[in-house]
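Hi C.,

You asked whether I'd gotten around to modeling the 55-residue construct. I have! Everything is below, sequence then structure, no commentary in between.
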Amino acid sequence: MAHVYFPTIEKWQGKNPDLTHERYDAVLGDVRAWAEHERVSLTIEERAWVTIEGS
């Protein structure tokens, strides 16, 4: 079964200082919607990371 790990807001801001809290909320919302639609588990945790191309 697939599982997605997403970083905490603290990790997000520490690794991506140019990305705002609002951007975090938007991306997390998109990931949550996708995970729900695809029936994929989602966990928010400190060890996860995200890369946004073009940012």
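If it helps when you're writing up: The radius of gyration is 11 Å.

Thanks,
B.
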